[in-house]
């Protein structure tokens, strides 16, 4: 909250969007975003993994698990889908097996973190990327 003053500009009518899992009482306009429902999450994952053009093949049961592990979070679905695009079925199955054994999606693959970094365009020396991305990809409370 204290860092917001850095983003003040001498430009009329600009807006700053603050996102957080917690509500800030200082802001009067709030919009609660819910995770994607299963159908939309599956559609986004399939698009991100290039399932529609046949360049990827992921077993239906593995897709269901991956979408569930991503908790309806668009950035997680995009990044995980992109990281699995074009991979052999065995690679997908191996990753899904690791995630089902309690390993975090973000612990399992440096490529996922690299894709998140590229997606958000932050330099590694300014923030601790792994912690930041884990915050972004955290599952909503009680889910």
From TrEMBL:
UniProt KW keywords: Plant defense
InterPro entries reported in the protein's UniProt record: Apaf_helical (IPR042197), P-loop_NTPase (IPR027417)
Keyword NAD: no
GO biological process: one example: defense response
Molecular-function annotations in GO: ADP binding
Iron-sulfur keyword on record: no
Protein name: NB-ARC domain-containing protein
Organism: Castanea mollissima (Chinese chestnut)
């Amino acid at each position: 909250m204290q860092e917001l003053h850095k983003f003040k500009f001498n430009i009329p009518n600009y807006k700053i969007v603050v996102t957080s899992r917690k509500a800030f009482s200082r802001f009067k306009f709030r919009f609660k975003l819910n995770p994607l429902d299963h159908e939309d999450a599956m559609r986004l994952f399939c698009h991100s993994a290039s399932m529609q053009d046949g360049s990827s093949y992921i077993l239906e049961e593995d897709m269901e698990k991956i979408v569930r592990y991503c908790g309806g979070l668009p950035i997680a679905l995009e990044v995980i889908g992109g990281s699995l695009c074009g991979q052999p079925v065995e690679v997908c199955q191996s990753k899904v097996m690791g995630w089902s054994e309690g390993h975090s999606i973000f612990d399992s693959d440096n490529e996922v973190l690299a894709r998140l970094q590229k997606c958000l365009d932050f330099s590694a020396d300014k923030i601790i990327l792994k912690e930041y991305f884990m915050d972004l990809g955290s599952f909503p409370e009680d889910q």
